[in-house]
Amino acid sequence: MTAPSITPMRADEVPVLEEWAAQEGWNPGLADLAIAYAVDPAAFIALRRGDELIGGGTIFSHSSQFGFMGLFIIRAALRGQGLGTELWHQRLTLLRGRLVPGATIGMDGVFAMVPFYEKGGFRLAHRDLRFEGIAHGVTDPQARPYPEISFGEIAAYDRRFFPAPRPAFLLRWLEQPGAQVLGLRGEHGLSGYGVARPCRSGFKLGPVFADSPDVAERLIGSLLAAIPGEKVALDVPEPNGAGLELAAKFGLRESFGCARMYHGPAPALPLDGIFGVTSFEFG
């Protein structure tokens, strides 16, 4: 039997990884992987046996200052053979080589795998909980769409809530087809912004960053009002108690969760202002 190899993923294999993610029930955004590949094609790693793709994952570099591991999948029929362990460790090694020395690496992993990830040097920071339901809300009259809220405003605000600059990624994220992007301004400039993006099924909200629960409620309500009746998911850091309360207020119920873990020092992020993480796959 041919020994497996770990190599860069070809562009034509990215849709295969996306389909596997959909089969796992991860409900990827329609443009998520295309955006990531356009920004950082070297992030996509393939596990092959000969010419056959049998596994894959991503090792995304945000400006070489912060890394994120996601989309870790082995083809279902080949699990339990140690292939995933080899791929996971090789991805970590490759990602560390793509970042500045000492840069932190993040990931969102299923709870059952936390002991495995801890053996690889990751430490649990908190849980990110997914809430799902049907979109209904009221548009806040002061909510303004992108690009009326400029990219410069959003990028500067985003930097407060993410461990590294991500301008190329963020621009494509805001401008993806079908996305709803809204912001609210306060006395001192932007006080919050959020994105609702189309997925295989319904929409996901993310990111949703805000100065206060009141701003977050107005943002989430406005985003949901833009996609009435659609299935919607929102991923909230568990330490943000106000975010959990807002999810319940909008009729969303907890359905899933991931362990947010870091290899290296955990970033000092204002979790009380993160009402929706961008994605479980890219940070």
Number of helices: 8
In terms of structural class, how would the helical and strand content be classed? alpha+beta
Which consecutive residue ranges, at least 5 long each, have pLDDT under 50?
A: none
Average per-residue pLDDT, rounded, comes to: 96
Query: Main beta sheet, described?
Result: 13 strands, mixed
Query: How much strand content do the residues show?
Result: 25-35%
Question: How widely separated are the two ends?
Answer: 37 Å
Plain-language structure description:
- The chain has 283 residues and is an alpha+beta fold.
- The protein contains 8 helices and 13 strands.
- The protein has helices at residues 14-23, 32-39, 83-96, 114-119, 151-158, 167-174, 213-226, 241-249; strands at 5-8, 44-49, 52-62, 66-74, 104-109, 123-134, 144-145, 180-186, 189-198, 203-210, 231-237, 253-263, 274-276.
- Strands 1, 2, 3, 4, 5, 6, 7, 8, 9, 10, 11, 12 and 13 form a 13-stranded mixed β-sheet that branches.
- Strand 4 (66-74), helix 3 (83-96) and strand 5 form a beta-alpha-beta unit.
- The longest helix has 14 residues, at 83-96.
- The radius of gyration is 18 Å and the shape is globular.
- The model has no long low-confidence stretch (mean pLDDT 96).
